[in-house]
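Fill in residues.
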């Protein structure tokens, strides 16, 4: 098995180089001031969670300090972070959202 080079009859194996793009974890951080309902709203609006899922994840962040709320390509992760940070700033909440390479 392998790929004949056509001239010499030498058979070389070629490794297919399919490189998956890196993925990025998007995280939200707990703070003492952002209202719980606002965080739930953010998780529903930008991360496609239903109300029960959003509430549960918000409570995890509240108790543990932070949680991964989704894993995305660089561009999508960057967009999510920007959307969350913009909405939080517009409402004057200190909510922080960051991304990190997986
Ligand atoms: N700790 C906040 C409060 O008690 C709620 C909260 C949860 C804030 C998650 C941010 O990412 C967060 N109002």
């Amino acid at each position: 098995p392998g790929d004949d080079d056509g001239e010499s009859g030498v058979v070389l194996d070629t490794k297919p180089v399919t490189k998956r793009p890196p993925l990025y974890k998007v995280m939200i951080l707990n703070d003492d001031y952002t209202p719980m309902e606002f965080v739930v709203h953010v998780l529903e609006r930008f991360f496609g969670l239903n109300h029960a899922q959003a509430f549960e994840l918000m409570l995890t962040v509240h108790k543990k300090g932070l949680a991964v709320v989704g894993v995305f390509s660089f561009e999508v992760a960057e967009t999510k972070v920007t959307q969350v940070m913009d909405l939080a700033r517009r409402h004057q909440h200190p909510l922080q959202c960051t991304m990190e390479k997986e």
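The CA atoms of residues 69 and 94 lie 18 Å apart.
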